[in-house]
Amino acid sequence: MKSQISQLRSRGFLSSGDVDAFGHLSTTDLIRQLESGDAVERSAAIRLLSQTAQSGVSVNRIFAERLTRETKLYTKIELCEALHTGGEETAHILIPLLGTIGRNQHRQPSLEAFKKSSYPLPRDIVARVLARMDPTILPILTTSIHEGARVQVLEVIDAVGFMCFYSSVTATDRRAALRALIDRLHGSLDDKLMQWKIVRALESFNHPDSLAILREVIDDGEIPVIRQEAQRSLTLAVKQPAM
User: Fold this and answer.
1) Considering the domain boundaries, does residue 93 fall inside one?
2) N or C: lower Cβ tally within 10 Å for the chain?
3) DSSP 3-state assignment of 242?
4) 177 — phi, psi (to 5°)?
């Protein structure tokens, strides 16, 4: 048991006592503590900074930069928990980091989620944060689908699909997101990974245009893995509220 606790703490796992121990520190001192060599101290600083009235865009900018360098699991979780409560300004900070942290992103179409009856959690750590943010940021993500670099678009598609599947998104924003996905699909006929990601995201939209695209892929698609994903998406899309 002692060994297990030691391993958890080495990865930045917090106890309530750890947070209390640093509660007296100022914002400046806590920001300085983000560079501590002790993962628990970094986690405690993040937790406390995220709870203070002074936390905001400037602190979230520091959190986002720290996320690009953090290696310990529970400290990363603290950063993600803090960042996902941010607003539009934080979303703008995070979008350029899509696809740049870690190596967990999809590199090719996959069948790993084929049997899931839900929208898979994005593999990119920044996409996971964005997907859980307030749905008022959806227009910002939609703009990124239109204008972002490929490395960003591949991951923001997952965030958009996840958000539209699980969150209360306005009808206007949902339609705009769907249109962006369809436009990007039509402009990515030679990009198999992009096609697969968009076909998967279409499971979040019960709209005649998205359903027609999925049926077309099922009937005429040349790539089996994308065809299978289209079948899964169609099964789930028709269960979503009609648009």
Assistant:
1) no
2) N
3) strand
4) -65, -45
Per-residue pLDDT of the chain (243 residues; tens, 9 = 90+): 556 888 989 999 998 888 999 999 999 999 999 999 999 999 999 999 998 855 578 999 999 999 999 999 999 999 999 999 999 999 999 999 999 999 999 999 887 765 667 888 999 999 999 999 999 999 999 999 999 999 999 999 999 999 999 999 999 999 999 999 999 999 999 999 999 999 999 999 999 999 999 999 999 999 999 999 999 999 999 999 999
How many Cα neighbours within 13 Å face the side chain of 200? 32
Q: Are residues 176 and 69 part of one domain?
A: no
Range of the domain at 72: 1-83
Query: What would the two tokens of residue 69 be?
Result: 């360098």
Q: Are residues 112 and 6 in the same domain?
A: no
Residues 120 and 202 in one domain: yes
At 206, is the secondary structure helix, strand, or coil? strand
The tokens for 156 are 């923001």
CA distance 48 to 128: 22
Q: Cα-flanking dihedrals φ and ψ of residue 140, to 5°?
A: -65, -40
- φ/ψ region of 8 (left if φ > 0, alpha if ψ in -120 to 50, else beta) reads alpha
Same domain, 135 and 239: yes
Picking from 83, 115, 146, the residue at the C-terminal end of a domain is 83
Q: Is 19 part of any domain?
A: yes
Backbone angles phi, psi at 242, to 5 degrees: -65, 140
Radius of gyration over every alpha carbon of the chain, rounded to an integer in angstroms: 20
Gap between the Cα atoms of 90 and 95, Å rounded = 9
Altogether, the residues listed in the chain come to a count of 243
Exposure string of 34-49, with b = 16+ CB inside 10 Å and e = fewer, is: beeeebbbbbbbbbbb
